[in-house]
Amino acid sequence: MTPEDVRAALMTDDPREKCLATRALHAADSSALAEAGGEPVAVPVPGRPVRPALVHPSKLARRGLGSAAGRAALIHAIAHIEFNAINLGLDAAYRYRGMPPAYYADWLSMAADESRHFEMLNNRLADFGHAYGDFDAHNGLWEMAVKTAHDPMVRMALVPRVLEARGLDVTPGMIERLTRAGDTATVAIFEQILEEEVPHVEIGSRWFRYLAEPRGLDPDRTFFALLDEYMNGGPPGPYNIPARREADFSEDELDELDARDRAR
Known about the structure:
The protein is an all-alpha fold and 264 residues long. The protein contains ten helices and no strands. It has helices at residues 3-10, 15-27, 68-95, 101-127, 140-147, 152-180, 184-212, 219-231, 241-246, 251-263.
């Protein structure tokens, strides 16, 4: 496997083909990717279908989960996150050079998981008479990829440890609401995704510390400094403390998150 193989999957527009290509990469030997050294490589906008239309988050419709239309809109929103997460995983494996072989194996594994999540959600959308692209979406995940493109340490801090970790925080509430609505099929999918996202966040924790410590940086302090610099202090609580702990957030980090949330 070469970096160009990863780039080809990253630039694939069709969701089905992207999912198949991503899982093929995960099944292949990725050790040669570690041999491509150098600075981060510029990446154009990754491949995505013409639809969904991308709009500002404030323009997205808010719908209750008591209706089938509302549940379909939620499933579509999470499918969009998972589709973007495929691109983020492939981008991390292609853009950043000179990392250990385990880094590339981790990120291709993560991208393969996200491809399965996307397909599960898209199949569930079909049960509602919809498909990916039928609802508007936003581009926030890729915008953060652009902001962190210059430095893998910043990427590891802010994408898996903030954006993906946010999924750990909010998914239990969505599961509860879907359970009240009697949508056991979607609940089962969300529960599987929640379980599998914990190790994705842990991948971010591990490689963030790997990159911070040789620079003489304290990872905990650096994480919050980056939250302040890029994300106005980070998202508010409540936080899924058990899941974040399992994803290797330190006790000092969890205490600081709690303190910041109380001070808001």
